[in-house]
TrEMBL record:
This is UDP-N-acetylglucosamine 1-carboxyvinyltransferase. It comes from Sporotomaculum syntrophicum. The gene is murAA_3. GO terms for biological process: cell division; cell wall organization; peptidoglycan biosynthetic process; regulation of cell shape; UDP-N-acetylgalactosamine biosynthetic process. The active site is at C116. The keyword Cytoplasm applies. HAMAP family: MurA (MF_00111). The keyword Cell division applies. Residues 7-404 form the Enolpyruvate transferase domain. Its EC number is 2.5.1.7. Pfam families: EPSP_synthase. UDP-N-acetyl-alpha-D-glucosamine binds at R92, D304, I326. Keywords: Cell cycle, Cell division, Cell shape, Cell wall biogenesis/degradation, Cytoplasm, Peptidoglycan synthesis, Pyruvate, Transferase. Coiled coil: none annotated.
Amino acid sequence: MQRFMITGGYRLAGTIRVSGSKNATLPIMAASLLLDGNCTIRGVPRLRDVEVMRELLIYLGASVSWEKDVMHIDTQGVGYQDVSEELMRRMRASNLVLGPLVSRYKYARISYPGGCEIGARPMNLHLKGMQAMGVGIKEKFGYIIAETDKLKGSEIYLDMPSVGATENLMMAAVLAEGNTVIRNAAREPEIIDLQNFLNCMGANVKGAGTDTIKVTGVDGLHGADYTVIPDRIEAGTHMVAAAITKGDVLITNVIPEHLDPVINKLREAGVYVEVKDDKVRVAMDKKPKAIDIKTMPYPGFPTDMQPQLMALLTLAEGTSVISETIFENRYKHVMELRRMGADIKVEGHTAVVRGVTGISGTLVEASDLRAGAALVLAAMASENGTVLDQVDYIDRGYERLENKYNAIGARIIRVHS
Ligand SMILES: CC(=O)N[C@H]1[C@@H](OP(=O)(O)OP(=O)(O)OC[C@H]2O[C@@H](n3ccc(=O)[nH]c3=O)[C@H](O)[C@@H]2O)O[C@H](CO)[C@@H](O)[C@@H]1O
Ligand SMILES: C=C(OP(=O)(O)O)C(=O)O
């Protein structure tokens, strides 16, 4: 178990470079299972979740080498399609191997995935879509067994634009016979990145970024060399870090368009945001203004930024209202922020945040990845020291966050206990 000792009150000033996107890298690594050969992925972030996906690919028989941010995957040895509960439970995104395994081997057996406790997160849409493509699904003792003689292209309508279901079904359709159309598909930038990677391997996928994705099945794929997009949630977190510490930070390696919802909300809160090419400069010298936020599928405000924005709004002038519409259990940071002196009330999906003049450090605990990030931000803005437990959650999605912040003025020490 590891913890952060954070001394608050230091202003962040300088440049931070954003790493490759976790949520783009994970499906792209899973998609390599569609291939019988080699691929190279660049811009791969050093994250715990990426480590788990690497272990999963190796467990299935792939060879994976990873140096700095370049990963080589050779899938020629893959011959096993049965994933143990231990591996599946370590990460939610491990469910993304289902589509590629069924597409290539016509069989997969995986246990239900684990991950952060932010909601029930069922897989009904993934499974319904696969059934429409001719896959038999059995659910037994917490395992999903997916089997088919032949995957057939199909018309699929998603009841909600689930990111994971869209990705799993796109991957399942790549080697299916005929055409698949996914309607009400998720439109997140990571879906476009997956489409680009699949097409780089010789797939025929169109429409990612819109609500209709069309996949024409192909007979086989070839190797690819691909660079993943920068992580928009990491970038958004740094933007809030600059604002909450009343700092001035240049954030590089970003695609500003992916950050539109975050940039707009920060500007509404009075934060100075300047966009230039692949950089964003964020500066703040006063208290933020209260704003309302509703989390929505892309291009709406991302649920993965809700806890971080809440941390900022605890110190705003006035009262903010936050509605979390994606995950039913994504307010676990509220209790911890209250322990630091924040004034927040939660009723159902809504949190009412009354701005306070200051928050103070204490002993708090990360309950999940973004809750942990929000607590780091709050601790950097607080009047004294904070001890943050369970930072392993933060390592799931941020590459040595303390090093990035310490390099521009923060005081964070990682303690191994
Ligand atoms: C690895 C990755 O990319 N993770 C992201 C992905 O998660 P993930 O792909 O799991 O999120 P989804 O878009 O699938 O989930 C959105 C909502 O749909 C529900 N749902 C989903 C599938 C299904 O079969 N049935 C169902 O009811 C979920 O419980 C949730 O309430 O998108 C989320 C929403 O932007 C982000 O917070 C996660 O960071
Ligand atoms: C919820 C997240 O990830 P996952 O879907 O992998 O749990 C996240 O990145 O905030």
